Amino acid sequence: MNRLIVVSNRLPFALDSTGEDLWTVTPATGGLVSAVEPVLRERGGVWIGWPGVAGKIPNKPLTEATRNAGYEVVPVSLSEAERDEFYYGYSNEVIWPLFHDLQSFCNFDPTYWETYKAVNERYADAIAQHGQRNDFIWVHDYHLMYVAQALRERSVDRKLSALTFFLHIPFPPYDIFAKLPQQQRLLRALLQFDLLGFQTRRDVRNFLQCVRRVMSEAKVLSRRELDVVRFEDRKIRLGHFPIGIDFHSFENAARSATVTQRALQLRVTFPGCQLILGSDRLDYSKGIPERLRAFRTALERHPELRGRVMLIQVVVPSRVEIPRYHEFKQRIDRLVGDINGRFSTSTWLPVQYHFRCLERDDLLAHYRACDIAFVTPLKDGMNLVAKEYCACRIEQDGVLILSQFAGAAEQLKPDALLVNPYDVEQLADTLLRAFQMRPAERRARMKRMRRVVRDESVFWWVDSFLKAGAKLAAHSERVARTRRFRFAR
Ligand code: GDG
Fold it and tell me: How many CA atoms lie within 13 A of 17 on its CB side?
């Protein structure tokens, strides 16, 4: 099997300075890390990425902390200006909002693109330096869409077996993508990969629609398994590979004594209440204010819910350096204050709000203790929280309310209660429906969702992606051998 090199903006370890020459290394959180880290730990390889601190990176703390990771860790350094323009700028003020259909949130500052390209070239240099013949390169996510082009410009692609990419966030429809000033350059860059993976069929469809409209010299050929785009004498394969979770690790951890104890503690702290859980990174795409407004509407419209439900909302701090995120947090704080101010009694607080990252066991205890998961992103590549909730429902009960715009809806739609997160009244009524749902129906739905989450796990995801890539790798090795043979003759 070819050696795997995973390349992502962030490493699965975050480096932080706690004083002159004092450093801490902590495991990073987030969807991508939760999904990919167990895989690399199991099969070994190399992970190239940024450890999250701007400026010069000391080698020692990272090397020591990752000695037993099971794979090699290669840090890429970014200056403060690069972090601001590449990470906060192009990645998170242009691509992130645009790809989540929120074009009015974009800041199309022209300088961002140049820095984005330069930083992508830095990642390509790291691949060139650490890559060996026949390595399988797997680049992740929207920060690094230019890496394949940079590798081809350096002719490094020739020694690699496959150059593949997976987009964790949605790909927008043409009418939205067309707002991007670099639309053509970005599509050209993406078409330098050999295999492009997306979360859902919707994303593949959107991407192909953009290729057809923007790249007149590209030809789209539909195939039974993977779609193909013919571009610059190359064939690029495309497919949807819905990301999963390590189901058994969640299920087993949810059964552990610590989690069981903590879940029980949560239950007895709020007697007579059905617990509703919202847990997200601080991000405007996650629909947190809409969810809070829906909860408020539910309490207004359905007085029978008062004193009988409690919303536990966990918000994990994220990108707080971007002003929009800071303002967004203040909006959430105000809404929580308003709901609690209006409805709380001496014995009941409607919203329990945590603005911090919970320990993993604590998060799992929340999954186990809460009767309803309220997952309402405005748009989401997949949403792993929805799947983790199902995996932790070891009693096979619980209701999942899920946004129709989350990638997970494509897999879980018959059994999750699908909602339009912009429709606050529908959300409120769905909360009532979940609250009233009979145990037998809850169990039947949850059983089926757990089966999907178990069968289409993160290992299934990696397997299907790598298998699709391996076919290309075998093909490119055959071509290279033929070329060498012809040349020798
Ligand atoms: C991107 C895409 C796609 C949450 N709260 C806590 C905590 N979490 C962990 C969850 C989960 C992860 O963070 C969040 O994953 P999501 O998938 O929901 O969202 P993004 O971070 O936006 O991920 C997304 C994903 O990539 C994978 O492709 O699904 O669409 O946007 O794993 O467990 N972890 C801890 N404490 C918390 O309080 N420890």
Answer: 10
Q: 362-395: per-residue pLDDT in tens?
A: 999 999 999 999 999 999 999 999 999 999 999 9
Does the pLDDT at position 257 exceed 80? yes
48: which strand partners?
A: 7, 74
Torsion (CA) 418, 420, 426, 427 in degrees, nearest 10: 70
Q: Ligand 1 mean position to 451 CA, how many Å?
A: 21
In whole angstroms, give the CA distance from residue 130 to residue 475.
Answer: 23
Active-site annotation holder among 143, 168, 240, 366: 168
Residue nearest to atom 26 of ligand 1 (CA): 31
Alpha-carbon span 36 to 40, nearest angstrom: 7
Ligand 1-lining residues (CB < 6 angstroms): 29-32, 34-35, 168-169, 243, 279, 281, 314, 316, 357-358, 360, 363, 380-385, 388
Token pair in block for residue 386: 């929805």
| Residue 293: pLDDT band with limits 50, 70, 90 | very high
Q: pTM, whole model, 2 decimals?
A: 0.94
**How far is the C-alpha of 158 from the C-alpha of 256, rounded, in Å?**
49
Q: What atom of ligand 1 comes closest to residue 388's alpha carbon?
A: 33
- Report the nearest atom of ligand 1 relative to the CA of 314: 38
Q: Is 168 tagged catalytic? A: yes
Where do the DSSP E strands lie in 44-133? 46-50, 72-75
Taking the CA atoms of 386, 387, 390 and 392 in sequence, report the sign of the dihedral they define.
negative
Please determine, for residue 489, whether its predicted confidence score (pLDDT) is greater than 70. Answer: no
Cβ 242 vs Cβ 411: under 8 Å: yes
Please tell me the predicted confidence (pLDDT) of residue 482: 59
